[in-house]
Amino acid sequence: xxxxxxxxxxxxxxxxxxxxxxxLREAGLSDVFHGKRFLVSGGAGFLGSWLxxxxxxxxxxxxxxxxxxxxxxxxxxxxxxxxGRVELVDKPVEALSxxxxxxxxxxxxxxxxxxxxxxxxxxxxxxxxxxxxxMLESARLxxxxxxxxxxxxxxxxxxxxxxxxxxWGYVNPVGPRSCYDEGKRYAEALAMAYMRQYGLDVRISxxxxxxxxxxxxxxxxxxxxxxxxxxxALRGEPLTVHGTGRQTRSFLYVADNIEAHLxxxxxxxxxxxxxxxxxxxxxxxxxxxxxxxxxxxxxASGIVYLPPRPDDPPRRRPDITxxxxxxxxxxxxxxxxxxxxxxxxxxxxxxxPPK
Length: 355
Ligand SMILES: NC(=O)c1ccc[n+]([C@@H]2O[C@H](COP(=O)([O-])OP(=O)(O)OC[C@H]3O[C@@H](n4cnc5c(N)ncnc54)[C@H](O)[C@@H]3O)[C@@H](O)[C@H]2O)c1
Prior knowledge:
two-stranded parallel ribbon
């Protein structure tokens, strides 16, 4: 396993990466990605940068990150850019001409935060439509394995909870969230079309809420709920809950998510065309989450209620039976443990002077 320059600057992320890599070693997957070439859209974002760090440590020969830094940050990958094995193409993925020469093409570029995508519906749809096509074409030219990171949002207001992969979804095709939900549904359909028509080796993860260090907690208008609550609590500001707070979510810690994704990328015939929910099956209301964050941070902040977000799903919990069986995976990190790690990470950033 390769050393990572990150370990000199971020011990939280580094120890979690080591944990994920140990799990992969136990699964016999630590050598699979050695010497391989990766094209990763969205690689400067939260999940993308964790994947890039992990692949770097597993000995990837070349990792090309395509990212327009719209919701991601150079800070997430800067430590790898001088290594000679990781490069950044700073442009919208949809503006890229399809490229060849990769073993794996991973399409993560998206604008997944509701506040942000509702502000940028056209860009959101372009990343999932034109962007997915560019990445699929690149995979086809390269004869590479293709990964699409899809979302629980393809299920919309799921009428079946816990939601299995066989559920077709209940989505408003024209509402303010449709740019993200329908964009991802189109991306899934296009990926499956490439598999059926061209025999491409496609894998699709449907990710449920994942949190942890590097999730953007700073940009106004981005804030996803876990890091938004932690940052508000640490600053002594009231925690802002949309609606009644009785809506539920299931939160997965990032290291568990990354382990699941690498298992999904394993060279196994039965994973061709696999569509798998990746998430935690522990469901919690947003109000309970707010109270837990107040307890863990020891904050005296109160809670204030804002109008509900349009089309906000009332419940979200994955059925992860398939991931357990197909990937031999299950979440390991408790919500309390993950919240403590994320709090420590944000606390360090708040204490650090801005660059
Ligand atoms: N984190 C979660 O809870 C979650 C849940 C469901 C699905 N997902 C999916 O996982 C993937 C990664 O999400 P994340 O949580 O890391 O979010 P993120 O916002 O941190 O990362 C997305 C990255 O894509 C980049 N990007 C956006 N539009 C682009 C474009 N047109 N061209 C090039 N780059 C572009 C952003 O700059 C950013 O670096 C996304 O596909 C998202 O839909 C994440």
